[in-house]
Amino acid sequence: MYQNRILDYISDRRYEPQTLRELAEELNIEGEEKTAFYEAAEQLLSEGQVILGSSDAVTLPPPGKEMIGVYRRHERGFGFIVPDSLTAHGDLFIPPGNGIDALTGDRVRAKVISQKRRATMGKSPYIGRIIEVLERSARGYVGTLTKRGNMYVVNVDGRSLHEPVIIRDPHAKNAKVGSKVAIDLVSYPDDFGNLPEGVITEVLGEAGEPNVETMAIMRAFGLEEKFPNDVLEEARLASKKIDNTIPEDREDLTKTFICTIDPPDAKDYDDAISITRFDEVQKDGACYELGVHIADVAHFVKSGGALDKEAIRRGNSTYLPRKVIPMLPEVLSNGVCSLQEGVNRYAKSCFLRYDETGQVVSERFARTVICSAKRLTYLEAQALIGDDVREAMKHTKSTPKYSRELITALKLMDELAKVIRGRRMKQGMIVLGLPDVELVFDDSGRVVDAQPEDDAFTHTIIEMFMVEANEAAARLFDILNIPMIRRTHPDPDTYDLGELHSFARVSGYNIPQRPDRHSLQALLESVRGKPAQQAVHMAVLKTLNKAEYSPSMIGHFALASEHYTHFTSPIRRYPDFVVHRGIDAVIDAADGKAINSRNKKKIAKKVVEDARVPDEEQMHEISRGCSHTERNSETAERELRSYLILELLAEHLGEDFSGTVTGVTSSGIYVQVDKFVIDGFVHVNELPPAGERWKLNANTGALVAQRSGKSITIGDQFVIRIANVDLSRRQMDLVIVDQQSGRKSSKTQQKAFDKKTKRSDKSHKQGSKKKSARGVKPKNAAKQKSKLKAARKRSARRR
Fold first, then answer.
1. What is the pLDDT of residue 497?
2. More confident residue, 496 or 380
3. For a pLDDT cut of 70, what percent of the chain falls above it?
């Protein structure tokens, strides 16, 4: 992980060569972390991935005569190669006519060509010419069959293939014009204008039907709903490994009051909660005991079996709109592994004891048998905490019977979660308040509306408890000093913090030159519930790195956690499997004894030698695979969600909505339609007033009008109009109708921020309600109609 951080930092275009000591300082490497940092740097040097220049400054090596990497192809014929091994040059530009038949995602080999005259023009002196496609992208292609004259072609969905694909014999699969089909390419587009050719492998149905579009996304992203027969058979056999007897190696918790709180449409319940508040403070200082009980999926899925191999291949469950593609067969995920109400289930339980301030005073793990007394939904539980039984009954998905024991437990959960949250906020936990919506579907599966997600505090209750259990699992392996897959989230890059500093200054806020976690937290809290909230929170989000899996000893920045992993969702995430198996190994090695300084080395040795626990190299491989499948699932969910929303907005061309700027480029701005939380594009030539010239300010990230001096930056709010929707490309073009007021901060807001910076440990509010957009009547209708018409024409030309 330190190797990746070093490479990411020095490969940035803004990097100026620094020594290793200076690098460590810039990356906030302190204390014991320095040893691992220098070891990573030495490894990079020995492999030639970095070199030492003058004054021992660390730099990337220059490009060689050839470059191997992944190609990104632009619709205008040029492209870039993202190299396997980073060089000081960065991505290699491939001019039009030099890409042979390579497509986006292909791994290619290219000749590196030096052109000194380009350097005199202020450009990179290197370009490339692809000479070989080493490996074709594994991504599938789906699209709609159409007819051009006497020729049948498929217009491929998305932006990975820009040309239509010729189909010589569409009737071989009984495909009709307007059918959504999956295809394999047999030839590829080239630099001479030849169109690709393909064969239809599957007819999915009529394009535009929600179920058909869902299948198309699944094919495009390699998501398989059906399981192989040997996997299903192993799952069926595994599901019979449970009965009502309590095994000797498990604690009997069937008489302990335990409940689940989940979304109303949940089918796999993998976490349950028990809680106790002691009448008197215990000897260890404990006032509460929290039990987090997680489905013991590892009991049913043995390492190395067909089930295990399929689970690691899938990596995670994928949650598409109205469709779940599970990691495990439903006989397990929705059956014997699911912590359903009123039945005995095997669990791994984490018991955490807290003092009055929410500090953990002791923790332990055990294999248990539980019986959930009640299944609750988030809104149902929230209503019961507020003593509103009638409201709770509106949201129940089970028998609406609420015992005194249940009400007491829920109120204790609310009490403890708030104490824990207060502690975590003092530690610097980052809480973003960005809008999200739930889509409303009709019976056919089409989106007909969107509504803000509920903001019940019960979501936070479960989140806090799961975070605590995940931390405890990570601490267990840290105490034993043995590797384990972790959920890592590095500190923000210095460059990104610099951009945030510029943005905050433009927005009217002054933050420290090198803001720490508490400074960021204070900035977020100072604007929460105010017009500037979305802009500032979005800007902070853009500074944060993406969390991923790795056995490296890196904490979780946003959660202010030194040790963090994933333990709480083994039904839907494979890394949790690895952690559960490691906990099994620890429980067996400890043999009922508490871990202490005298026995921990002996226990650790047994765990490392346990066949259920992968070695560190295997953990790196599993981590890379699971990070990839996670990103693949997220992209698939986002693309299908976008299609369904755009399909609705295509019926609302010319209508107006409130919008917020989410991105700024030299060619235009991305604006989010607030009601549906989806982005569209406004070309720079279509920004008002007509004829104005706009230029991107590299220092502030704002688009600045050259004549008036007016600027547009992230978070600015406009009334926007839907100009055009291209469903196949997942694109939407917008025009600006009017600017909304209220985003810019005032001196009063700055004073409030300064005050919060000094008192960043003050208790925080739970967040503000999100407001959905509403239509706004346009001004100067005739002029706007003309703009709309021109925007559609330009959009058509770009397509």
1. 77
2. 380
3. 91
Q: 251-253 and 197-206 as β-strands: parallel, antiparallel, unpaired?
A: unpaired
393 and 431 part of one domain: yes
What's the length of the chain? 799
- Taking only the tens place, the pLDDT of each residue in 690-717 is 889 999 987 778 899 999 999 998 888 9
Is the pLDDT at 119 greater than 70? The verdict is no
H or E segment and range at residue 539: helix 533-543
For residue 501, the one-letter residue type is H
- pLDDT tens sequence across 125-141: 788 899 999 999 877 89
- The pLDDT of residue 121 is 63
User: How do residues 533-558 score in pLDDT, each as one tens digit?
Assistant: 888 888 889 888 899 999 988 899 99
In this predicted structure, the answer to whether residue 783 has a pLDDT above a threshold of 60 is: no
Q: Is residue 565 part of a domain?
A: no
Q: Count the domains in the chain.
A: 5
pLDDT tens string 646-669:
999 999 999 999 999 988 999 999
Least Cα distance to 267 among 206, 194, 204, 330 occurs for 330
Q: Does residue 174 come out as left (phi exceeding 0), alpha (psi in the -120 to 50 range) or beta?
A: left
Q: Which residues pair with 276 in a beta bridge?
A: 289
Nearby residues of 346 by Cβ (< 8 Å), 6 or more positions away: 242, 250, 295, 296, 299, 367, 368, 369
Average pLDDT score over the chain: 87
Distance of CA 107 to the CA centre of its chain: 25
Let me know whether 200 and 315 are in one domain. Answer: no
Mean pLDDT, range 669-678, rounded to an integer: 94
- DSSP output for 689-727: STT--EEE-TTT--EEETTT--EE-TT-EEEEEEEEEET
Contact 696, 758 (CB under 8 A): no
CA distance 128 to 63: 11
Distance, in Å, from the CA atom of 60 to the CA atom of 50, rounded to the nearest integer, reads 5
3 state SS of 370: strand
Tell me the mean pLDDT in the region 420-443: 94
Residue located via tokens 């620094």: 18
Element (H, E) at 415: helix 404-427
Q: Quote the CA–CA distance of 547 and 427 in Å, as a whole number.
A: 19
As a whole number of angstroms, the distance between CA 411 and CA 509 comes to 39
Cis? peptide before 689, omega within 30° of 0:
yes
Q: How far apart, in Å, are the Cα atoms of 611 and each of 302, 584, 599, 603? A: 11, 11, 21, 14
First to last CA, the chain: 41
CA distances from 358 to 27, 114, 289, 352, 427 (A): 31, 62, 11, 10, 12
Query: Within 650-693, where are the H helices?
Result: none
Residue 729 in tokens: 């490309």
Predicted TM-score (pTM) of the model is 0.84
Question: Which range marks the domain in which residue 324 is found?
Answer: 229-468
Q: Are residues 32 and 127 in the same domain?
A: no
In a domain, 482, yes or no: no
Q: Find tokens 């320095």 and name the residue.
A: 34
Asked if residues 725 and 653 have their Cβ atoms less than 8 Å apart, the reply is: yes
